[in-house]
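REVIEWER CHECKLIST
Item 1: Sequence provided? yes
Item 2: Single chain? yes
Item 3: Sequence as submitted:
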Amino acid sequence: MVITALLITAQLTMMECSGPPVLRARIADRLAFCCGEAKQAISFTNAQLIYELWGNFQTGTWTVLRTSPAGLSCVVAVGEGLHSKPGKKV
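Item 4: Structure as written out by the authors:
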């Protein structure tokens, strides 16, 4: 599935934040309100980090967030072209 591959790639190669970490709720609210994105997938690492894929299937935009155990998040990747496979519920 496209989403799973994206999250695995994000974990392995996109470890740098694009800005300073802030409270997860603040970024989540902004993604929902400004971009129409919703959480589509989540992945956990051995380092207790959480990676979330947020996306909007209508516009195709996506964002990957990294959240620390302290609840601070940062954007590690953004892009366009998000879609799901026909007949698959995400």
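Item 5: Key structural point noted by reviewer: Confidence is low (pLDDT under 50) at residues 7-14.
Item 6: Recommendation: ____
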